[in-house]
Amino acid sequence: MSVIENIKPVIERYSFGVCSYLAEKWGLNETRVRMYFVYSSFVAFGSPVIFYLVVAFWLNIKKYLRKGRLI
Predict the structure, then answer these.
(1) Helix, strand or coil, per DSSP, at residue 21
(2) Quick count: other Cβ atoms within 10 Å of Cβ 29?
(3) Which residues span the domain enclosing 50?
(4) C-alpha span between 36 and 30 (Å, rounded)
């Protein structure tokens, strides 16, 4: 097993799930969405990271609203 195959499940488990959410909504492969984030971060000097964090925050708020735990 390669190092990447060992690390990938750990990263996916502890990530916010933004790429998987967007891939599901847009009907794309999760790996492609992750690669687009990486490539666009290099091209746009990190500004997609801000978008990623905003979407991650929104998904967490949405999850709590659905469960009725937001007080």
Answers:
(1) helix
(2) 10
(3) 3-67
(4) 10
Per-residue pLDDT of the chain (71 residues; tens, 9 = 90+): 677 778 777 776 667 788 888 889 999 998 898 888 888 888 888 888 888 889 888 888 887 888 876 55
Number of domains in the chain: 1
Please, are residues 37 and 52 in contact by the beta-carbon 8 Å criterion?
yes
pLDDT of residue 9: 73
Q: How many residues are listed for the chain in this entry? A: 71
pLDDT of residue 64: 80
- Reading the block at residue 51, the tokens are 């978008």
Paired tokens of 68: 């009725």
DSSP state of 17: S
Task: Tell me which amino acid residue 45 is.
Answer: F
Token pair 């937001």 in the structure block, residue: 70
